[in-house]
Amino acid sequence: MRPEKLFTLEEANATLPRLRILMERLQRSALRLHEELRGLAAESETDLAAVSTEELLRQRPAARALAEELESVVDEIQTGNVVLKDIQLGLIDFPSERDGEVVYLCWQFGEPEVAFWHRIEDGFAGRQALPGSTGPRYLQ
Question: What is the reported pTM?
């Protein structure tokens, strides 16, 4: 299925100032929510993996604001057909077209510009540098 919007490299790069702000907010909120989960697990002497977000919200209603902030920022990032791939790593894909094939332009939070692309089925591991780009291949 063809995405409703395909980005040029220039269009993708033009979104980065806004995405940097949103990704920073998203990662900060995700970290705070994780800390709440870890705290609840410690209090209840339960393994962290066994504590669900639903349980956290039941036990700590104030954490709902963090969950809502996460959801709000994810929605805002994905507005306009941008694809959020990984919150922790800060991976975002932009549907694009290359030689008649729909591909993703790929950006990782911390990179100065969109400098990579990959086939949809290849994911981050298949990232290839765009012509003229010399950026490092991040993966934190």
Answer: 0.83
CA 59/CA 8 separation, integer angstroms: 46
Cα–Cα–Cα angle for 101, 105, 108, nearest 5°? 155
CA distance 39 to 103: 41
Contact between 44 and 24 (Cβ < 8 Å)? no
Residues in the chain: 140
- In the chain, the N- to C-terminal Cα span, in Å, equals 31
Burial of 54 (0-12, 13-18, 19+ CB in 10 A): exposed
The whole-angstrom separation of Cα 8 and Cα 107 is 13
Select the more confidently predicted residue: 134 or 19.
Answer: 19
